[in-house]
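Deliverable D5.2: sample structural annotation.
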Amino acid sequence: MKKRFITNLALLIFLNLLIKPFWFFGIEVGVQNRVGEEMYGFYFSLFNFAFILNILLDLGINNYNNRSIARDHHLLKDQLSAIVPLKFFLAFIYALVVLVSGKLLGYTEEQFGLLWWLVLNQFLASFILYFRTNISGLQYFRTDSLLSVMDRSLMILLTGFLLWGNIVQQPFRIEWFVYAQTLSYSLTLVTVAVIVFHRSGPVLPSLSIARSLAILRLSYPFALLILLMSLFNRIDSVMLERLLPDGREQAGIYAQSFRILDAASQFSLL
């Protein structure tokens, strides 16, 4: 058991060392060079704004679920029936809070146009992570390792074609980068959901207020930790964009150096 765990941990680290550096220093840098600091800062500040509040999509449920399934595999079907509808409810709350907060911050119609897509991407990413907690909890470590890089691999292919494939004549737009993320997340979510539901069998969603509150009560310590970490790591670019006259450009310049920190911190999240 220990040997299997260590082998698959090594596979997880190897795959992420293979894929994610190219994502950060190839694709993201390529996109920023094409669209410029101002437009990339426009995207980067909105992405971080949506990312900070994505704790509302989780509230520590993923960590709680992973521990529960790892302790008792027979809980999979019961947990799915309770948590999936709860996460849809949390997604509604998340979208509402993000959009209302954006309105209070004075975001423009242009910013809201991109923010909607970033909210959708966070929703998709949250569900991918949730389904992966079931897979790792069931100790399918190799499958989880491959899924951990599937979304980024698809993004690299799609964005790479748009950047360097000469398939479009017009200049690269930051919206295309976001759309490529949406498609990649969607394909990954379908894949991981099929794997989980194949293992669990048919699941009948059951949203129980009492059960949902019990789950949230058990998971809130994880939620508080993640919220504080997100604020500490991600609020800088949002403040730069909002407080400075040339905030978009400054946020884009800041993104160049933050990318190194972000890449280095990824391995603590695996």
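Annotation notes: The mean pLDDT is 84. The two ends are 19 Å apart (CA to CA).
The annotation will be released with the project's public dataset once the embargo ends.
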